[in-house]
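Q: How do we represent a protein-ligand complex in a form that can be generated token by token?
A: Start from the inputs.
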Amino acid sequence: KTPGASIRTGTGADDLRQAFLDNLVCALGRLPSHATSHDHYLALALTVRDHVMERGVKSFERGDTQQIRRVAYLSAEFLPGPHLGNHLLNLGLTGTADKALDGLGIDLDQVLAQEQEPGLGNGGLGRLASCYLDSLATVGVQSVGYGIRYEFGIFDQTIRDGWQVEVTDKWLHGGNPWEVYRPGAVQEVKFGGHTEVVTDAAGRSRVHWVPAIVVRGEAYDTPISGFDSDTCALMRLWKSEAVESFDFEAFNHGDYDRAVEQKVASENLSKVLYPNDELHRGKELRLKQQYFFTSCALQDMLRIQSLRGSPPDSFHRNWAVQLNDTHPAIAVAELMRLLVDVHALEWDAAWSVTRATLSYTNHTLLPEALERWPVDMLGGLLPRHLEIIYEINAHFLDEVRAAFPGDDERLARLSLIDESGLRYVRMANLACVGSQTVNGVAELHSELLRQTVLVDFAALWPDKFTNVTNGVTPRRFVALANPGLGKLLTKTAGKSWPGDLDKLRKIEPHTDDPRFRSEWREVKLSNKRQLAALIAERTGIEVAPESLFDVQVKRIHEYKRQHLNLLHVLTLYLRLKRDPKADIPARTFIFGGKAAPGYFLAKRIIRLATAASDLINNDRDVAGRIKVVFFPDFNVRNAQSIYPAADLSEQVSLAGMEASGTGNMKMSLNGALTIGTLDGANVEIREAVGAENFFLFGLNAGEVVALKRGGYRPRDRYDSDPLLREVIDFIGSGALGGDVDLFQPLVANLLDHDPYLLLADYRGYLNAQQRVSELWMDPEAWTRASILNTARMGRFSSDRSIRDYCQRVWNVNIKKQKK
Ligand code: 26Y
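Then emit the structure tokens for the protein with 26Y bound:
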């Protein structure tokens, strides 16, 4: 037993209470009689952290002997959500903590509510990274998630007069008890300057990079516990600091401004997360951020492996490095630089190591999201990397010429450099060339990748490509978020389901048991009551828990088509106005999601939702029939209240646009039925839960391409469909938001361009919504479908995704270490 461990990490309620009080007094310097709820949170967090740390330390020791190859997940974004409740769940300490605090008259829920979540990501990609760390720890794989410790994460969203207003996120202001600063893991990262050829001691020519600037990277570690597991994952985030606090030369000459300039510039690197997703802009600071954390991560891995006594040329045996999209794709050139320039490997040897180490996950087909950096910008910031990229490209294009002689167009398409106009470095091409494996995030997406964006790479290296369908952690998104359902599942399927989600199948035989069905409905209704209370608190809107909760929560994006959902809402409204007796079941439409601050149309879509909300909720004619809510500040914490209360999950993106989606999985897993297109993982969800338990509509990806190719004319749809005409005219009429001009840009966009084919899918969507209403009016049939959704979603646990990665991509054996 580790000395001292029993005092701080005892697992009885009395131990926990004592440790909690000790932390309150000794670590925080607070008298119990004067402590606030936030103090209680910090004290409990420190207490729980001790438990997690103890496991972490032991698992790292063990890892050295049991698992040679570790996984490094490089991601510019992580969205872990609040830690405390999740750790308690993973450690099996929730009840104990509740009891320990209860003995002091403290309410655990109130303590949990104090935590500020780290919003270090935009949406799906960042949340996926956090689900994967959770699963890596749970299935027992040694891993590190490398990223950036943004001082300001994604903005908090408030709604003022119906508009999104961004408020700075200050997640570190109350202190962050989860992270541990690692002075021993500091790294230096160079920028700018020039390169020189020098002769080393052995008489070999080497390239020496003389930088203009050096920045310090400081490591902050956050342990990520696994469910019922002795393994801990590590989230290691880098904070940038100036190497010297001041430029003393400038300072001594009285040039104070210039003296602090450098310090400020260095610290700016990890200052703020860019709030755009799916839109690449060539912002230099973003490239600096990407290189900064990627370089810190790779240097750190080399350091760790040298501590293990392993030479640089066996890097690939020690590390499997996953690139979460192209954001860390500069890793290809950086690893080459470190191996060739710093560790003196020959080019070819270094290239073999690099290619055996790295793998690349693509998360998007949208052309506007593909990262390309102007050659001049990249060369100015990273002169040595540009040289390396050119050299990689030269070797690569030779290979292409050999495979496809005389095909210059193919050469131009494959090249790492886009030379069609201004010259750009294509990061997806760089990632493909430097990787062992390339994967998409759902079957359809991986297929479309091979057919479109990466078609030439797929022709060259068909075996490099694979699919790993995304997954979500059932710990946070079922057990923690939906304890009522969790209890029912445990009672019916046994207690192992959170770590073995296929066990959910065991509830299927109970589908036709009336008692089970009524318990199922009771759980859902209770979740809806809780959400209704939260909605009232946050928006002042009263909603009926018995109504159908129709939910669309995700980033606001045209391709995700929140405005298609709104067309349906308004069509229903107009129908109810015309025909007050219409047989339409009561519905509550719930929207949530942030818009990128500079995304004009996305902000108008939010405004349309809030305008619909104002109009409909205050119209007595439709009282008790439909309500519309825009739930402000959709984040991980709020998601945990919303998913469990969803009856209907809106997954209505235009087919071929959503790489996977993961909210679709979270809602179906919590018993929602999906209305959706054949897009992303919807396709696989529908296969899993059964077509009869899924409301399908819309064009498929092939039909989308054909329609666009044939010259799509949205105005024809408008002209020929009276219902569509009525609702579009209504939006443009000024009846919503009280201003005729307000939604003109949206209306004009739909009538003249409609790039995401809303008008083409409108009718199919209405029909599918009609089927939703009909099924809802048969509660037994609805409940049956709801149960089957949960029962058959086991495949979508992120544990399965991680096992797939281990097998298909990382070549890591899973030796589950049971406690
Ligand atoms: C280039 C930069 C501006 C950028 C920043 C963030 C580009 C993209 C992103 C984030 C993308 C993202 O979240 N993609 C989503 O990844 C999920 C996980 O794989 C998918 O489920 C989802 O379909 C996809 O949109």
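The longest strand covers residues 213-225. The chain is about 50% helix and 15% strand.
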